[in-house]
Description:
The protein is of the alpha/beta class. It has 15 helices and 23 strands.
Amino acid sequence: xxxxxxxxxxxxxxxxxxxxxxxxxxxxxxxxxxxxxxxxxxxxxxxxxxxxxxxxxxxxxxxxxxxxxxxxxxxxxxxxxxxxxxxxxxxxxxxxxxxxxxxxxxxxxxxxxxxxxxxxxxxxxxxxxxxxxxxxxxxxxxxxxxxxxxxxxxxxxxxxxxxxxxxxxxxxxxxxxxxxxxxxxxxxxxxxxxxxxxxxxxxxxxxxxxxxxxxxxxxxxxxxxxxxxxxxxxxxxxxxxxxxxxxxxxxxxxxxxxxxxxxxxxxxxxxxxxxxxxxxxxxxxxxxxxxxxxxxxxxxxxxxxxxxxxxxxxxxxxxxxxxxxxxxxxxxxxxxxxxxxxxxxxxxxxxxxxxxxxxxxxxxxxxxxxxxxxxxxxxxxxxxxxxxxxxxxxxxxxxxxxxxxxxxxxxxxxxxxxxxxxxxxxxxxxxxxxxxxxxxxxxxxxxxxxxxxxxxxxxxxxxxxxxxxxxxxxx
Length: 475
């Protein structure tokens, strides 16, 4: 029996207060046991949190940049000191294997905080154009509504730039993974963040999220989640003309160009599989489509099968977040979802390759489909599970067209022996981020999407700018 983390209070105006919305159990998706019990916010609690953020805003906005930066450094240090606690919490409520829980879920957010502070210290809050003084000023109160797949990282990329900019925040974490947010609230408290600058309320999106989105004293809503819910938030926020930041779905493509040699091809397949399966396949940036030259498809299929077979469920591959999510992903495991010519390389509904699943936990078989129809469900719909689709292209131009054949545009990759040519292809992809030949993640670079992958940019200086108003003063 796993330990149960009990959180009977919300964090509002620098104090821990009882929630009026009833209790919620949190399940460990790897064991299907209860691992947490939290209190939820009532409508009055949400109003109190917004009021606290509104009251704290003038003083925080007027706080010198150097003081805000020093405060965020303390927050960083507290999280770093408690890294094992954060990793264990993520492991229990989100199911990530311990190594992934530490590296992806804790160390990466710490790097994001570092880069945000660096950006804050050099950010141009004042500039000049002719006789005009251009001021960039904090928008006010920001409501951050975050998802379950990255319960610390997705909070950090919203909350830390907002605090750096001088705004105050009300956070509503996902109901499936709220425990990490309580640990973060304790980190803010330990760092000495002024009362009301950060507030934590929990509850469902339909109740608490909707109230925050409609609230007249919330100036901006920052949401990460599905495109469907993002559309609803955009429509609701329009009622008060709130500013919105939306980081939504993805169906990202990894494009192998015709000049790719065998060594680079092996690297491309290995990294694409790893990216697709990262976090159990539950990342919006997952490279879920591998587009390869048609003459190399058999070689790619062998390489993909070898790479995917190393992701053993229960050790290297974590579970899906819930039974409902498992059922949704399993609906894609029939090769017919990829069209009549689809080949099951590994996994699938028949578990090709003989990969065994643990007896408990919401696990699915890591799967690779090949020769997928680019117009099929498998190639066009976000799956949010460890399912890779291999598509073939007759030319580099066709590969680009296939990559852009999506309502989404969040991430992507390009592989080619001629680096400059690969960068030129990256410029043609309709997506917010592109890695060329395995380029490393940059926590200071802008993050966001084209098309129905969202609105706005997060991280680094771009995340700070996203929550600032612009004023021109003519002199």
